[in-house]
Write a structure and sequence with these properties.
It is built from 9 helices and no strands. By secondary structure, the protein is mainly alpha-helical. The N and C termini lie far apart (64 Å).
Length: 180
Amino acid sequence: MNTPPADHLKAQGLALFQQGKKDEALVVFETAVAAYTQEGNEDGRAEMLNNIGVIQRVKGNNQAAIAALSEAGEIFSQLGNTDKQAQTLANLADLYAFNKQQDQAARCYSEAAALFAQLNQRQKQSQVLRTYSLMRLKQGQWLEAMIRMEESLSVHPHLGPLRWFFRALLRFALSLFGAR
């Protein structure tokens, strides 16, 4: 029996995931990893590893998620695919944050934000910094949370009046703390 082409497996896995069939999607993505490997498509393999990491995270299999996301990130880095590397780092950061591993989460959020900045993807950079800020807020690290939120708003490509006002308030508060 021939294995379906990797791109077909990818589409099938994504459809299953969107239908909430995580276990079935996981099996398909694992098969896709092998198919992309056979095709010599490292980018596709890394993308499937990222998807596997996301599913493993949702299922609560943290070590499997970390392993898959870390491997995906390394491959994207070797390939010079900075966008997908940053996305994978953000996924890894979310996993670490969820598991109360804030130091690792902070490192991954910072690296992801820096990579998105290199690519001038301000919307994604802003989202990562906002999530980083919210993590610090939950920890009670108010000053760092405010700094990250101000950074998030400063790079956001389209600030509306409310966000602009909020950023101005944050800047004023940070100046009072001597942080800006």
